[in-house]
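queue> pop job 88
queue> type: inverse folding (structure -> sequence)
queue> payload:
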């Protein structure tokens, strides 16, 4: 696969449902009621349960690994939250390659909420991805 600077990372789009959020809470042992309890969030005058922010990191890694395949390793991932995302909303992970080499690439990324309530959920975000092996030559260059 030939990867070039300026190349778009194929987007990943996902609707995050309450059942997904409960499963994620169980997997991460993060049982804050803001992430799964509609009655609790209604008391707080929020439109619905709030998607755990770490879900966006998982989606960005999934986006990159879906594109690059099983011999890609996200070495570094940084992201900043901009807006809340609620159960039932659809998000799209987008990105562009900013550095490209034989052993690693760097991408600028973001997550946007699509639909009538369009807004940026995560930006800026960036990832350094090693190509080949996790402990291969790209690992030293990524440090």
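queue> result:
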């Amino acid at each position: 696969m030939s990867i070039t600077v300026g190349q778009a990372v194929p987007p990943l789009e996902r609707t995050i449902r309450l059942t997904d959020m409960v499963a994620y809470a169980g997997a991460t042992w993060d049982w804050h009621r803001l992430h799964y309890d509609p009655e609790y969030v209604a008391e707080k005058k929020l439109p619905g349960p709030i998607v755990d922010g770490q879900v966006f990191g998982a989606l960005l890694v999934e986006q990159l690994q879906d594109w690059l395949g099983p011999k890609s390793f996200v070495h570094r991932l940084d992201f900043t939250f901009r807006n809340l995302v609620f159960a039932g909303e659809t998000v799209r992970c987008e990105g562009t390659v900013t550095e490209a080499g034989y052993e690693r690439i760097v991408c600028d990324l973001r997550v946007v909420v699509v639909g009538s309530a369009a807004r940026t959920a995560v930006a800026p975000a960036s990832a350094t991805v090693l190509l080949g092996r996790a402990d291969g030559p790209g690992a030293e260059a990524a440090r």
